[in-house]
Structure formats: C-alpha cells, structure tokens
Amino acid sequence: MRAMRKTGAVEPDEHEEAQGAVTSEEGGIPVAPGADRYPALDLANSAVALPGGQVLDLLGTPAAATRWLVDHGLAPAEAELRETCAAQLRSLREQIRALVSSRVDGHPAPGSALNGLNDALTRAPAVSLLNWDATRGLHRALSHPTTRIVERALATLAADAADLLTGSDADRLTACGSPPCNRYLLRHGRRHWCSTRCGDRARAARAYARRTGTGTGTGTGTGEN
Ligand SMILES: [Zn+2]
C-alpha cells in the first residue's frame, strides 16, 4: 500500500506494462494514473468493482479505513478510527465520486455532493495554525491533534478534490473504459484504462466481439491499442 504514494510520473504513452508494476498490497490492484498525486482520486477509487460483481472496499471497516489514512499520511500510525469516522470517509468518497462523474460527463454538479464536500472543507483547518508559548515561542501546530484527526483528514481530502476538479488536470479526468471497473484516472494520450489488467480485459472483450461478430459496446472505441 505504501508504494502507492511513491509512484513515479506516468509515461505519456501506451506502455501500460510499466504502470502495472506499481501495485497496492490490497488485492494487487495497481494505483490508477494520477491517483498517486491526488489522494482524493485515490479515495474515489477506494471501492473497486471487480469482475464477477464483487466490490473490494478499502474503507470497509474501521481498521481498513485507519490503514488507508495512515498509508496516505493523513493520520498518525497509532490512530484508531471508529465506525462513524470510517462512515464519514466513505460518505466523502461518494460525494467526490459524484462530482468527478459530473465533471467527466459534463453534467451539472449535484448540489448534495457540493454541500457535502464544502462541509468537509470547512469542518476543520487543513493546515497547521500559528501558536506561541513561552518555551517554544512562535511555532505551527495542529489544533486539537488527537480529537480532530478525521475532520482534518476529511478537510485535506476535500481540498485536494476541489483542486483536482478546478485545476489544469480536470480536463484529463476520465472513467476507466473497461467494464465493470469503476475507477477514475487522469488520461495520458488516448489511454483510458486504469491498469494493465483493465486494458487487457478490454482488448480481450473486443477481440471476442470481433471473432463472434457480437456486441459493439466494449470499451469506448477511442483507445484501440
Ligand atoms: Zn479499470
């Protein structure tokens, strides 16, 4: 899981093999292009739809959600989330997914998702505040560091999502074009798959459709490589 934060720059070409080398320890799922730079994108991708109708939820339990935050540098190693906190994180995930989806599809942003994201943004300062005391003088410190871990993590993730959705990378946001995958990525060139695995599956589906003369709905038809 820690490797997810150390992913190098994505090659701007079709060589997916190098990308597939970076894997999460959670089920061997590679980090999606762009999700290494935007933790909010990684959050959006944290409930992975697998072939066969299963969902791998990396935030499915308080322990899993804690590990996700620690691995992303958003909580101290000794943190222990309660289920209500994990649920808040999953809720923010759905709001970010709704906003990313509307951005990708060119639809109006859902008001409920905007409200939820803004609520997370304003619930806690995402930065260290300026403090003064007699021994240390002026210094920066987090407010209520032990009781507001989750609020701060939510605020940081919400701010990252806002940056992603309004910055220069927003136009490259795209949904993985390999059903049933539900992940989002930052597109490079024509590639619109989140992983080697998804690219292989989309190619296999197209090849099968060609061979059998059935189906035209595989992939998006724009990344024929
Ligand atoms: Zn995918």
Automatic annotation (TrEMBL):
Q: Which SUPFAM superfamilies match?
A: Jann2411-like (SSF160904)
Record region (Disordered): 1-30
Which superkingdom, per the lineage? Bacteria
Domain annotation Zinc finger CGNR: ranges: 172-211
The name on file for this protein is Zinc finger CGNR domain-containing protein
**Gene source species:** Streptomyces adustus
